[in-house]
Amino acid sequence: MITITINNKEIKLEKAVTVLEAARSAGIKIPTLCYHEQLEKYGGCRLCLVEVEKMPRLQTACTLMVTDGMIVRTETEAIADVRRGILEFLLINHPLDCPYCDKAGECELQDLVEKYGPTTGRFKEKKRKVTENLQDPVIVRNMERCVMCTRCTRMCEGVQGASAIGVVSRGGHSHVEPFSGNRYDCEYCGNCVSVCPVGAIMSRLHRHSYRPWQVKENIETVCPYCGVGCTVVAQVRDDVIKRLVPKIGSPVNNGMLCSRGRFGYEFVGHGDRLTTPLIRKNGVFEVATWEEAIGLVAQRLGEIKDKNGSGAVAGIASPRCTNEDNYVFQKFMRVTLGTNNIDSTARMGYAGAQSFIENIFGQGATGNIISGLSNSDAVLVVGGDPTTVNPILGLQIRACSRRGGSILTVGHLPGFQHFSPLELNPGLNHETQLFEHILEHIVGELVSRKVLPGSNPLLEAKIKTVQADVAEMMKEPAISEKDFAGFIEKLAGAATPAVVIGKELIQSSGGGYKLFLICAITYLINGRIYLLSDHANEQGVLDMGCAPDLLPGYRPLSYAEFRKRYETAWKTTLSDKPGLNIFEMIDAAGNGALKALYVMGENPVFNLPDAKTVEAALRKLEFLVVQDIFMTETAQQADVVLPALSWGEKYGTFTNMERRIQRVRKTVDREGMEDWRIIAEVSKHMSQRMQYADAGAVFEEITRVSPLHRDLTYDEIAEGHTIYPYKGEPLRGATAEIKIEKGSSYPDGPLLLGVARPLFHSGTLSRKSPALLKIYPEAVVRINPATAAPLSIADGDIVRVTSSAGSLELPAVIDKHVEKQVVLIPNIFEGKGALSLIAIALDPVLKAPVLDSTPVTLERVGKVSA
């Protein structure tokens, strides 16, 4: 125990910290400008100077470590005089433009000058003049206000790892600017905006629209985009979200955000939002009342069920909706309509991969703490770039490298290129052989030491059947024996390894077999698995039972004792027959077996492969209901469209990829109904009453019904530590047969289409965010220079990409990081989605679509303008 005295107050500390941290723990404020909780100690601004007994001169509290018996004074006349002088120097060039500076009211310099600063300035020289830079669409820079604390550059380089900005020039001419010049060419995380203590770097989204003291509410909630589930604080004025800021201390993101989380919230107030129910009459949508629309939905679903049976009706839930929405939806499908035909777009990869992994390692195997990645001594990354899919998770992998750990990647991942990764790039045709070769070497290492784990005989038996085709793999010229040996040494020798798996592996040809190989490697090195997740509640939609073979609590439908529990709670009889998955629903609609489909918060026409086939199947339905916040491609096919409230307009919970449950809170008011409430109203009109006063009542039922969520409360969740398995009962059981089936090899010669996953977009929500559209405004086709040259394609040329499923015309971007045999198109923009060109083909094991084997041709149809 360390005891120190600050301003005559005795403070006891368990471990050595800085004087500044000790003072803050006791509620004693010491002024700072360069210090920030998320940054390394710096000691540059000198405002934190304090007197320490037996030390001859003033000391910087932010760098001085406490010692037992230390006596410190933070407020003396000498200290105040020094602080006054420092502030006077800063004000030599700092403009006195507080009346129209957006930072006024939360400016740290303004607060310090008010408390310590001089009332008049003695310097008569003219102030430095730097023109405000408005050339970036999202971030504005005013270097006249910069106090050179370097918080922004230290954040960008030392925490974010982007190294996109720096201090240029010298002396009084020093200022911060992006290395790209006027406009940023960076990850647009905006974390430099968060840490700037003055108005030098600010967001343009709320420029001159409010003052900080005019914010009426600061509401803590969860980011609506990816599966990391970052904690954000929505600042609201006049029932409009003015900005989202990260929460320092959050166990998930600890004050960090990505571009989507910081700048992507504007979809909530977008002018294209659906506001009233719509009913198709004579082929045209007409505005209807809620009573009319809900009555029609209930009537038609009831008629189709009575005439064709429950199996003729299906529902698609949403990983964008809350746990409460999804729970009520699956209950409606099973109790009111009597069918297990319920699924979601988690079937695109996450659901099958998690089921496969948990069959080997047990339930909860993927529910690992994200921040733990930074403490690993080696992280193996396969199947995509985490810095674009789950950016905050990607930062933890970068932090692992900064702390001396190794990043091991299969394929080139640009997000880690400045962190000295050990990279093996096997090319399309040799990825499977590479994984087999890695597995063979690790098995050899362990056998030589006689330390095979022995805890999973079924898996070890399968491992023994793997035979690596080393000669075939070593044909890949990009992999040398030296690189491979170094890779194996780091991986096999790691004490705390982690394995990060992305959808590019799961959605590849032979994805199920590749996933088996990665699981085998993970088992042998005793690693932790992280399964990347595209959507905010992708885990929650499964935990709530929105799958054809699952009940709430991730309980298998096939077990009679689990069904009995829910039958008792819901006072109904459940079928033991698994329902249709989302792809089987499309097939059944196409062949006429499925008559009605209820889609909640999802857009299968755009988000499933082969849009033409999906559209044609939906047109054959007798009745299609779409419940959403925008008129999506799927809603345009509907018979009834029901407008729902968005993420920022309702209460509920999300479950992130760690399986951490977090509170979603209403930030703004809007007329309308939550998804769960609409479903409950439809159910009531079908004589199956669901009585819930609010989202809290829904969650209370979840905790009574689901053994996994037993006894949880909103208050406990709000504390931020609701981690799997909560207070519940994780499912324990014997491992079923491990199915493996090799995929077919990629065809030699033709170009293959791949799905790009840009950092600045996620699904179709982000295309309704004006700020993100300014950063990444349109779909493009990315092509390797070696592919583009023979076709005379240059940057900006319009290129027609054609597959058996259709064609798109897009601007070309020449990108050396793209595989030579691959062209990449994102699946974001309306009418320009990559999935529309890909035919539906499913992996036989994971039942996920194969998205990397579609042959395409390229044709330049328009030349770049001079």
List the helices and strands and how they pair.
Elements: E1 2-6, E2 9-13, H1 19-25, E3 49-52, E4 59-60, E5 71-73, H2 77-90, H3 108-116, E6 139-141, H4 151-160, E7 165-168, E8 175-178, H5 191-195, E9 201-203, E10 217-222, E11 231-237, E12 240-246, H6 259-263, E13 278-281, E14 284-287, H7 290-308, E15 313-316, H8 323-336, E16 342-343, H9 350-361, E17 378-382, H10 386-389, H11 391-402, E18 406-410, E19 422-424, H12 431-449, H13 457-463, H14 470-473, H15 481-492, E20 497-501, H16 503-506, H17 511-525, E21 528-531, H18 538-543, E22 550-551, E23 555-556, H19 560-570, H20 582-591, E24 596-600, H21 604-607, H22 611-619, E25 623-628, E26 640-643, E27 652-655, E28 661-664, H23 675-685, H24 695-705, H25 714-718, E29 751-756, H26 770-775, E30 781-783, H27 785-788, E31 798-803, E32 806-814, E33 822-826, E34 854-862
Parallel strand pairs: 1-5, 15-16, 15-24, 17-18, 17-20, 18-19, 20-21, 24-25, 25-26, 29-33, 30-32
Antiparallel strand pairs: 1-2, 3-4, 3-5, 6-9, 7-8, 10-11, 11-12, 13-14, 13-26, 22-23, 27-28, 29-34, 30-33, 31-32, 31-34
